[in-house]
Amino acid sequence: MTIGRVNAAKFISRSLGEPHDSDFGGEEAHQLFNAAHANICCPPTGHRISWSDCYGGADMLPLTLKADLFLEFNGEPRPLPGHLTEEQRDRALRAQRLATRIWREAHRRNIH
């Protein structure tokens, strides 16, 4: 008997629950992280994975895991790639600042 593939995304909750989601920036924070992550992953020369797939991959994660996309294991911001435009770099820097704040607060609240 063959067992079909299981989509793990339906088992990952995008929500941390209240008041955490609202405290960490809510839907606006989700959109900032999603777009900045997709910009970092997809250089203008192209990539095997589309921008919208990278956006969607980040979209299914809760804010604490999205913050980890922009930070090293110790909570410091990761270096940004050189292919980002000025607007994309500004967005990524805002995402890093928010990620640092979320990472610290999540550790304080013990929800990391």
Chain-wise SSE layout:
Elements: H1 20-23, H2 26-41, H3 51-59, H4 63-68, H5 86-109
Helix pairs in contact: 2-3, 2-5
Shape category: globular
Distance between the termini: 38 Å
Mean pLDDT across all residues, rounded?
A: 83
Residue fraction in strands? under 5%
Q: Taking Cα atoms only, what radius of gyration do you get, to the nearest Å?
A: 15 Å
Strand tally is 0
Describe the structure.
The chain is mainly α. The protein is built from five helices and no strands. The longest helix has 24 residues. The protein is 53% helix and 0% strand. Helix 2 packs across helix 5.
Provide keyphrases for this structure.
single chain, 112 residues, mainly alpha, 5 helices, 0% strand
Write a concise synopsis of the structure shown:
The chain is mostly helical and 112 residues long.
